[in-house]
Amino acid sequence: MANIMKLVVDNYHEILENHKDPNVDSWPLMGSPGPVLCILAAYLTFVLKVGPKMMEKRPAFQLNTLMIVYNAFQVVFSIWLSTLAWNVNVFSAIFGGSCNSAARETQETVEIQAMLSRGAWWYFFAKIIELLDTVFFVLRKKQNQVSFLHVYHHTITCFFSWCYLKVIPGEQGMLLGFLNSVVHIIMYTYYLIAALGPQYRKYLWWKKYMTSIQLVQFGIMLFYLIMTLAMDCRMPKALTYFFLTNVVIFIYLFSDFYRKAYKKKQA
Which residues contact residue 232 at a Cβ distance below 8 angstroms, ignoring those fewer than 6 apart? Predict the structure, then answer.
């Protein structure tokens, strides 16, 4: 019990003493949690209550052109986000100095932290834009796709992207953001092809593999986070524990979805 209390206290002090980019507080939506909480409250209210009620007696909106433009934008934006990690040499930053016992406060690490913060804000911005996925489902009367997994994933990712940037940024977030952006390139490419029309469905034979790709992504994240703890890397451990918890939850939810969507159909 004493060890657990010490761990909690140590991580609490780590959060208080964390040296985040001081410019973050002046960035859009970062002054306080109010704006992002309002956005998420409006999102949940619309996709769970107002939207379905509004569409109950209306025909589904035909948003073909909008969906093509939206998904094409998401592909390009995800490619750009993934390049941000390469610009800070993500693997060198994570596997190089971050596990070193020496002090991290050098000119190089300060510059990396600044680039990390800028990339994290754009990643957070991407999570806000991705809330439109669910809005489009509702407007197109695809309510069966508004599952607990979908809504939980979008809500929690958006809110904790804000928390990550505002409270306790760390280098381990770079690899997770990079992996997620790469997966989104694949995912939105699928949606883009699907939006082009029925004649392109023959190119979507790989649909069932998308969930497998997401699970592989979470598996890599889980292994990496455990390694940072095992190697006692000089990264914010409170952040690592939080990431670990959510990765485990996502693995469970996506595995359950895969089992219900594909394994039962095969049976």
Answer: 99
Q: What is the span of the domain harbouring residue 161?
A: 25-211
Residue 219 has pLDDT above 90, yes or no: yes
DSSP letter string, 190-234 = HHHHHHT-GGGGGG-TTTHHHHHHHHHHHHHHHHHHHHHHHTT-S
CA distances in angstroms from 242 to 3, 40, 246, listed in the order given:
18, 20, 6
Q: What percent of the chain has pLDDT over 70?
A: 80
Catalytic residues: 153
* Three-state DSSP string of 137-157: HHHCCCHHHCCHHHHHHHHHH
Number of domains in the chain: 1
CA distance 110 to 19: 10
The length of the chain is 267
- Stated pTM of the model: 0.84
Residue 20 lies in a domain: no
Contacts of 47 (CB under 8 A, 6+ apart): 134, 135, 137, 138, 146, 151
In a domain, 160, yes or no: yes
Is 178 part of a structural domain of the chain?
Answer: yes
pLDDT at residue 9, rounded to an integer? 45
Q: Is 234 part of a structural domain of the chain?
A: no
Dig out the tokens for 211 from the structure: 């969930």
Q: How far apart are CA 36 and CA 48, in angstroms?
A: 18
pLDDT value for 55: 94
